[in-house]
Amino acid sequence: MKAASIILNATLASTVILAAVGGAHGQELNLYTSREPGLVEPLLADFTESTGITVNTVFLKDGLAERVASEGESSPADLLMAVDVGNLTDLVEKGLTQPVESEVLTSAIPDNLRDPGNQWFGLSMRARVVYAVKDLEIDHITYESLADPEWKGRICIRSGQHPYNTALFSAFMSHHDAAQTEEWLTGLKANLARQAGGGDRDGAKDILGGICDIAVANSYYVGLMQSGKGGDEQRAWGDAIKVILPTFEDGGTHVNISGAAVAKHAPNPEQAVQLLEYLVSDEAQKIYAEANYEYPVKPGAAVDPIIASFGELQVDPTPLTAIVTNRKEASELVDRVGFDN
Q: Nearest 5°: phi and psi at 197?
């Protein structure tokens, strides 16, 4: 109950602030989002200042699709914003979104980072990378090679059932068949330095502690650690590692996204599209990069210097929609090989 109250208070506060800025112009839209308030509010404030459109924001930690579905045709939601392509796909599959025709969006966002029917659009990316002890003499690694015997007892990773990892394993299945993926997961498990678990930042912590030599984790955590935003202890973890951008043998680096879709029964669809188009502007993409150390989806947009130091990101071209279709089977394979045991 306390958590719900905190989220509600943040919602009311952001709504009041934004309404004070843009209410006089008479236009508004209603945003439902599972993103953290601190990441979204700078974008919305800039949008309101630029357009005069008030953004009434509802922050939902969980249950975005369930909330909109329960509201039915009377839902006030105009724009639905979520983290993870699986959550965006769920919105489409439950009939909660509508297609958007926008040259601004289709020209700014690569095909593999948006729904082929233009039901949802990626807005920022995080890459699934490798953290490595600084003196490791290797500059490139493939996801496939993580199962090689040379890494036995040297890898840290969080639960195989965590969405970050099921997405990676699903992407692996887009390049290899199920039997090959099962064999790879078995080899990866055999190479773990400790039981799969914890969070991504624990991988950096355990590298500093000498438990493992490499860890599989998300790119943006490095920015949060090395910038000092996570405190002095986490800064020490971040300073203990270097980052390698792995690729598939026949592809690029796996990424996941945050994104948004216009709600099916949006009362203010034009304003919702305006916000979507703003979110792929150079200015908004820069704010994304600075607020959470994420990669912009718009080619050529500015990247935070910490993230840019990893080298050039070559995004795997596999459509994210194709990756989502493998998630159930990937999850079953995780259990079959006892990955988290």
A: 165, -175
